[in-house]
Design brief:
21% strand; Arc Repressor Mutant, subunit A; 6 helices; alpha+beta; three-stranded antiparallel β-sheet; extended
């Protein structure tokens, strides 16, 4: 089975607004969870799916403990895991106290053998477009104006369906619309709603 891909438009810096470039990105078939992994591993050995799942769960817990202890974790056949940090921008290390250092993310460095085995992957372009459509700012404004003609509030999912966006693109465009004053956010962070802003006009 070949990995499906499609082309996505690069975010263009303002100084290069006239140039449109694209990059290829994998379009996942789905997500393989722990249960599915356990079944696949069971099919290759005599260990039961329940035992495999228990080991995978324990592996997750142990890896977290080791990372929190400041260790780098190496998993044979996969690669290395290590936490990354963030802190305020400073001109001297003396300006930052330990309380200001925060966990940022997990850095993963794959093993050379893993990358070598993946080099033989076959790819094919997806036949049906599954990522966000491209809309000009004026088109989005018209869609919003039409929506707010009959609604007071808009949710993220409303906006996503209205514009045909994926969730990440919808969140990014909503942020841009808030910053431009076309939308205003109300409610809590977990249940955010949006109302028409002055920047959207009549």
């Amino acid at each position: 089975m070949a990995v499906q891909y499609d082309f996505y438009k690069n975010p263009s810096p303002k100084e290069n607004e006239g140039q449109t470039c694209y990059h290829a990105r994998v379009v996942p078939y789905g997500t393989t969870d722990t249960v599915a992994l356990a079944e696949r591993i069971h099919s290759r050995c005599t260990v039961t799916p329940a035992d495999v799942k228990a080991v995978l769960t324990s592996l997750s817990d142990v890896v977290i403990d080791e990372l929190k202890a400041g260790n780098r974790v190496h998993i044979d056949g996969l690669g290395y895991l290590q936490i990354t940090l963030e802190c305020p921008t400073v001109q001297s290390p003396k300006e930052v106290r330990a309380e200001s250092i925060r966990f940022k993310s997990i850095a993963f460095r794959p093993e050379a053998e893993l990358k070598k085995r993946l080099c033989t992957t076959k790819f094919e372009r997806i036949s049906a477009k599954r990522h966000s459509v491209e809309l000009a700012d004026g088109q989005i404004d018209e869609l919003l104006a039409s929506f707010f003609a009959t609604h007071i509030y808009m949710s993220r999912s409303d906006f996503q369906s209205l514009c045909g966006y994926t969730r990440p693109t919808a969140n990014r465009r909503l942020k841009e619309l808030r910053e431009s004053g076309k939308l205003q956010i109300v409610g809590t962070r977990r249940s955010s709603l949006y109302v028409k802003g002055e920047g959207l006009g009549e």
